Amino acid sequence: xxxxxxxxxxxxxESPAYPYKIPAFRGLxxxxxxxxxxxxxxxxxxxxxxxxxxxxxQAGFNPEGGGKQxxxxxxxxxxxxxxxxxxxxLPKVTRxxxxxxxxFFNFASHIEEVERECPTGYAAYGGKSLHEQSxxxxxLALFTYRFRGRGKALYLLDEPEAALSPSRQLxxxxxxxxxxxxxxxxxxxxxxxxxxxxxxxxxxxxxxxxPLSPVKYEDTDHYIISxxxxxxxxxxxxxxxxxDDPQA
Length: 248
Prior knowledge:
CATH class: Alpha Beta
Number of strands: 9
Largest sheet: 6 strands, mixed
CATH topology: Rossmann fold
Strand content: 15-25%
Number of domains: 1
Radius of gyration: 19 Å
Shape: globular
């Protein structure tokens, strides 16, 4: 692994402010990365995207998404968590990309401006403007074309499944596998997708515990709930839609 460890420093344990009050970070001194693919999981607000963003900033990526060379800003919304992180590298990696699904439109607009100033035929995105592709197509073009190339790279993906159909999530798994075979890439991915979480050999960190902790794929809510729904859909929906008994 290139990014070996993230350490927390000067952490105000008793602060009631965000992000210091997040339970997943309570009592946490460091996080080790020992697999090519690491997943962050947890409910909304559990801190997984906040930590991914802080790692991206410390690694030199744009807080709104992109690589080191993508300099743009539409709104300053990042937390101060990055000020309390120290990244340990072996070796230090300068290539990579930070994907934020929620701000990908802003990134695509930035690429439009870059292309007007220095036309490349959108070579890094399949030869077509990201705005001229569907949301899912633009994500897959990014993974397929922008993520290729020689040299070690760190890829940070925040909910990449947001624009991907199930079949294209499988296509992303194939891309992850190809990168792992090259030995040149490391991925840290925040996701809700049970399909992506099924990637073999990946480490899954659960942000719903305090502090965050590793969890097996079969023990995640994503796997358990998806399996229950697929195997017992009618019974689960009947229970879900059952009206509360006013006499109870």
